[in-house]
Amino acid sequence: MDCNRVFVSKVKRLTIVFTLLIAFLSIKIDTFAQVDSAVVPVDSAVAESVHEVSGEHGAEAKHGKEKFEPTKVIMEHIADSHMWHLWGHTSLPLPVILYTANGLEVFSSGNFHHGEHDYNGKYNNYRLEEDHIKVVGADGKIDEEASKSILDFSITKNVAAMFVAILVILIVFISVAGSYKKRVGKAPKGLQSFIEPVIVFVRDDIAKPNIGHKYAKFMPYLLTTFFFILFNNLFGLIPIFPGGANVTGNIALTFVMALGTLIIVNINGNKYYWKHIFRPDVPFWLYPIMIPVELIGIISKPFALMVRLFANITAGHIIVLSLISLIFIFETLAIAPVSVAFVLFMDVLELLVAFLQAFIFTLLTALFIGMAVEEHH
Amino acid sequence: MELVTPSIGLVFWTSLAFICLLILLRKFAWKPILGAIHEREQSIDEALNKAELAKQEMARLTSQNQDLMQQARAERDEILKEAKTLKDGILNEAKKQAQVEGAKLIEKAKIEIENQKKAALAEVKDQVSSLSLEIAERVLRTQLDDKTKQEALVANLLKDVELN
Question: Where are the domains of chain A?
Answer without folding.
Answer: 2-67, 81-152, 157-373
